[in-house]
Design goal:
Structural class: alpha+beta
Shape: rod-shaped
Number of strands: 4
Length: 181
């Protein structure tokens, strides 16, 4: 029975480590933009283990039920899979928080752009024409003014948050929320 406990400890350690990695994969890039691309190869391994876990976890349960020895690679896959599942569950509130922060920043910047237009008749040519220091105090730390891409065309503006290499978040003025493009 000690062998089974040692195996279970290994699965738990691997699972906790993997869940922590998955959560960090989503949190760290909020503060350090572009870092997710360095972590992507490891995340693909975890994702694969999570997919394979659908088969390996029931297989392990069957082997334990039949009192058969469980191979080392099966323990590693199970630990990675369980960690991937828990890591994803941990990231759900993190992603919700990020969406709230992103939408709050969009609303604040949009309001300041409209105030500027009401005072001057046109939108500013650059975001730096707004009161940057005052606005940055109101904005969430993860979405300061320097993260935005902005341009004006024919008295209409486009506000984006560029995502390195992939795409961008685009501010939908009518719905007052960010859309992934």
């Amino acid at each position: 029975m000690l062998y089974g406990i040692a195996e279970m400890k290994k699965v738990i350690y691997i699972g906790i480590s993997t869940a922590t990695f998955v959560a960090l994969f989503y949190v760290v890039p909020l503060f350090y933009i572009g870092l997710e691309f360095l972590l992507l190869p490891f995340m693909l391994i975890v994702l694969t283990a999570g997919i394979v876990g659908v088969v390996t976890i029931p297989l392990t349960a069957y082997k334990v039920y039949k009192s058969q020895r469980i191979s080392n690679w099966l323990n590693w896959l199970n630990g990675l899979a369980i960690g991937a599942y828990f890591g994803y569950l941990i990231t759900i509130p993190i992603l919700d928080w990020d969406e709230e922060q992103r939408n709050l920043s969009g609303i604040l910047v949009s309001e300041h752009l409209e105030e500027y237009r009401n005072k001057n008749g046109t939108y500013p040519t650059e975001l730096s024409d707004l009161q940057v220091a005052q606005l940055n105090k109101k904005l969430p730390n993860t979405y300061q003014l320097d993260r935005f891409s902005y341009f004006v065309k024919e008295n209409e503006y486009a506000l984006d948050i560029p995502i390195p290499i992939t795409d961008r978040w685009h501010w939908n003025r009518e719905e007052q929320k960010w859309e992934y493009e």
